Amino acid sequence: MLTDTKIDVDLLGEIDEQKPSEQSSPGMSIPVPLNISQPVVKEWLAKKRANLRPLGTFFNTANFQVPPSAGRLTKRLPKNIEYFQSNYVLVFLVLVLYCLISSPLLLIVIAAAGGASYFASTKNTQRKLAIAGHEVSLAQQYGLIAVCSIPFFLWAGAGGIVFWVLGASMFFITGHAAFYNYDALDVPEDQEPLVGAIVEEV
Q: Are 103 and 109 in contact (CB under 8 A)?
């Protein structure tokens, strides 16, 4: 005679459910926009202004001498560039300003590009620009304005002006740094302190 045997099997435990990873892959992450910090720019300008040498020292004709040897020239160039770097930056800016003033057409193109960028930034704060359902960021708008401005800058002669400013700046800075006698300057950083005991001979 067969008896019915009932077997109860209890399944204990938890079934781990695989959840999709919440962390997105590095390739899908949205890049953080890089902004130039305004305090960094102010600090750089303040440092350059503090290191600006007096014009009387910068244009002192008594300190202009022909380097006696090539070795003295190689030592004079880096020291003068380091000591007068703020003055050289000022010379470069003066040349750029002179070119802008002497080229009114280039000023018009720069003003138009700046006005378009300002208009894009003000409109972006009020309402985001979208084309075919895709949002256009402010950086992309700036890039489009820059690309569209390139033909106008070339038409205004910006290429020749850039090469002229770079060439004139390199000529002036190299000539000044090569012929200016750095040894005639009283620079405290270059004065080596006396180390050791002084023995007096009797």
A: no
